[in-house]
Each structure stands twice: as structure tokens, then as C-alpha cells.
Amino acid sequence: MFPRASGVLLPIPCLPSLFGIGDLGPYSYRFADYLHSAGQRVWQILPLNPTTPIYQHSPYHGASTFACNPLLVSPEHLAAEGLLDRDELPPPILPEDRIDYAAVARVKQQLLDKACARFRQRLPGEDYARFCAENDAWLDDYALFAALSARYPGTAWNRWPSELQQRQPEALARLQAELRDSLEDLKIVQYFFCRQWIGLRTRCQENGIRIFGDLPIYVPFHSADVWAHPRLFMLDETGSPLAVSGVPPDYFSTDGQLWGHPVYRWDAHRETRYEWWIRRFARNLALFDYVRIDHFRGLVAYWEVSANEPTAVNGRWVQTPVEDFFTELQHHFVCLPVIAEDLGIITADVRETMQRSGFPGMRVMMFGFTGEPATNDNATHRIPENCVVFTGTHDNNTVKGWFETEASALEKRRLELTIGRKPAVDDLHWDMIRLAMMSPARICITPAQDLLGLGAEARINTPGRWEGNWLWRMSQVQFAALPQQQLLELTEAFGRR
């Protein structure tokens, strides 16, 4: 299921494009071709869910766990289909190295509106009808939720008119009639994404590239999932969260991380035989070849914090019906190509669940030079075969940024001893890539920023920091500078091609 291989982490929004954000257009195909030419067999991305300004466009706070992000639809592909005119595509005036989400949303929404109108004029055919039928378990709820969120901007769903927050059938039927064209457009955009994603996956498959996706464990309170299935979440009689998600203090934050998602009512999920989860896994396995479960330990035991707490410090661990849950999943799926994100505080019950299920965990090279070398699971000499090793993840600084601004004198000394010489900052990223490549880990992943030797300015996310995340993107010049021959030679030298 997980052959020895290597790959690159580059989220879709971080790709170059002419529209201020990476999308499923020409550069996504070029990147798939680059991976093939450099001997890589895995492309890791982040969640594809729709993002919102209220959560700073974090992909881990998606407005739906089933829908995909309209901002990632390629206008160039729509133009190739005749749904947009070439002269309607705006000139590249948006920033090339940062994402201005507000500007991107304005530009792309205007283009999507035109494309949807033309698509409807063509009278959508059997393929669109089939897409709607195959996704009817979530598509209508997502469209209604998105339309209502636009009608009541900045207002959580439990503050909508009572007949809408309670999903009274008559009120929803009136809304569907009143907003028929708007709701149809929301579904058409999901169809556009689906077709473009199939095209990109086909290109990846032709190149022997597996897509390594990401399943956030939680969903935000203001989301289509919580609005449509409130009984599955820990809410009070007014619909407000009783308890929310987070993690206790760790090496990322002394106050822990208070994520604020409503936690699951696992007894209700068990009564349905985990039907919502099964549909969610099926959706992700249809999109991706491998699926990383973010914060995997939360499926075994989760950190529950009262909704009125200002930080995640005062919480408690709560057990889930994990054995029953995974037994049910295995009844529905022949295999589960799952990678468990097991960073942070990991207890014996989590390790036992991973071992029983055979799920690989994660190791991060830059965590391997601190603490006690005999017990540090990220230390180079302790990396096991059944894992995915990273030079760093989307939550880490770049290798260069870490060395210049975070690494202690002890960490630098241990790194020097590991590589056999004093590290040179400009070559350090290759030292770390080489260490990861030579490890026993089944899969080795390098963030694109580390391939380019970029510094802290290219960091994607800083856990515990609310603003300034999810903004970095690769310029066209940087894309052209992606190393091919050196990466290919390392890949072949350590048997990962």
C-alpha cells in the first residue's frame, strides 16, 4: 500500500497562477510533470475544503467537509471549454508571492458567475445530473448553507431565523424556490471543480504520481455539516457549542491550541453506525490516493475544553469508541490508505490503535536534534520504516528559517555531528533532505520551500497565531528554479524512485 517513495508538499493555493492564487490550471499540470521528471511519486496537498475570511482562509476550518474550494477552479480551463472568453480573463495584477484572498474572491466570483450562466444556457446534460445524484447526500445542504451565509453575512447559523436554523422543510422549500439560480450556480461550481480535479488526477496517474490528501479531524461550528447534522456535535439547546476542540500545551504553544470546533457527540455517531464518517472517508478516498488524518489522536481520545475557556489549558481527555469505529470502517473499505498525524502528546492507546490498524505515523527531521537522543522518536537513528518522514510540515518553519531563528546551540551541534561537518546555511536544506531520503521511512516528503532553500518568509502556517497564515505562494521564477537533477539523483541513490 505504501511503497518506498518520495514526494513534495505543495498545497494547490501555493502554486503560481495568473489569478492571485494557485488553482487547478496549467501550473498544476506542470508541477505534476516536474514531479515525474524529478523521480517523485507523491504530491502532498492540504485540505481542499472551501475556506472563509472569518477563519483567515485556513483549510482546517472549512465551511464543508465534502465540498471543495471554488477559489481553486481554473478560469483558463473554463475558457478552454468556451464557458469564458479569453478576453474576459483579467491581466495578472494580483500579488505573485502572497495571496490577497479578498481580491482573489472578487475576481474569481465574477468569472464563475459568467461561466455558470453560460453553462446553464447550454442546458446541463447527463454528466452534471449524474454528479448531482452521486453527491446528493451533501450537495444541496452545502448550497443552501452557502446561500444563507451570504444572505446573513457574519451571522452564525444558530442566529438565523428559527425556521432556517431548525431546517423546517417548508422554509427550506421556499428558499430553494426563491434562490433557485443561486443554488444551482453553487452546485455547478462544485461540478466544475470535480471535472478539473479528475483531469489533474488523470495527469498525475499518467506520471505515476499519487496524491496525498488531508482530512481535518474537526469541522467549524459555522459549517454546512454542523447546521445539517447538529445532533452529531456537542451543542446546547440553542445550538451553541458546549465544548470545543484543542490540544494541551506542547512544543508549539505554552497555552495549548484552542481550535474552537465543536467536539463530536460520539454516542450519536455510534447510533448511526458512523454513517457521516463513512461518507466522509468515502469522499476523501475518491479524491486522494493517500489520506492523512490530521490530529489522529483525537479519534482515540480528544482534548475537550469548555466553550467559555479563553485558552486550551483547562481541558480534559475524553475517550472515543475507537475500536468499534475502526471496525465499522473496515467493514466498508477494502483498504484504508491512511497516514496518522501523530505529532504532539501521543499515549499508548494511540500507538496501539495505529499498530492494530497498520497506519504509518509521521516523523519530522527538524524535531530530531533536541531532548534525549535515546528516546526522541524524530531523531535520525530512531526513524522506523512504517512512517512518513518530513524535513518539515506546513506547521513548521522552513529548514533554513528553523536553523536561523529557532534552533538552539545544542540542536545545531547535534546536526553538525549527524551530517559530519559544520552546517552551511545555504546548503542546509540539502543536508536535511538527504537525511530524510536515506532513512528507512516508507515515504519521504519535502516541502517545496525546502527544495528551494527558502527562509522563514516562506512559512505557510504558525500554530497558535491567528493572522498572517496561509498567504505564501510560489512565484513563477521560483517554480522555474525547482531543482530536478539533484533531487532525481538523491531519489535514485536511496531507492525511492
Quick structural gist:
It is built from 19 helices and twelve strands.
What can you tell me about this protein's structure?
The protein is α/β, with parallel strands linked by helices and 497 residues long. The protein has a single domain (5-493), classed as Glycosidases (TIM Barrel, Alpha-Beta Barrel), CATH 3.20.20. Helix content is 39%, strand content 11%. The chain has helices at 26-37, 75-80, 101-121, 126-134, 139-151, 162-165, 169-178, 180-206, 224-228, 266-271, 275-287, 322-332, 348-357, 399-405, 409-419, 428-438, 448-451, 476-480, 485-493, and strands at residues 5-9, 42-44, 210-215, 243-247, 257-262, 290-293, 301-306, 315-319, 338-340, 361-364, 387-390, 443-447. The strands form 2 sheets. An 8-stranded parallel beta sheet has the order 9-6-3-2-1-12-11-10. Strands 5-4-7-8 form a 4-stranded antiparallel beta sheet, with no helix packed on it. Strand 7 and strand 8 (315-319) form a beta hairpin. Helix 5 packs across helix 8 (180-206).
Distance between the termini: 15 Å
The stretches of 5 or more residues where confidence is low (pLDDT under 50) are: none
Structural class: alpha/beta
Q: Rg, please? A: 23 Å
Fraction of residues in helix: 25-40%
- Which shape, going by the Cα principal axes? globular
Enumerate how many helices there are, as a single number. Answer: 19
Mean pLDDT: 95
Number of domains: 1
What is the multimeric organization of the chains shown?
A: single chain
Assign the CATH topology: TIM Barrel
CATH top level is Alpha Beta
Architecture (CATH level 2) name: Alpha-Beta Barrel
CATH superfamily: Glycosidases
Please outline the major beta sheet.
8 strands, parallel
- Which strand order do you get reading across the main beta sheet? 9-6-3-2-1-12-11-10
Count of extended strands: 12
Strand content: 5-15%
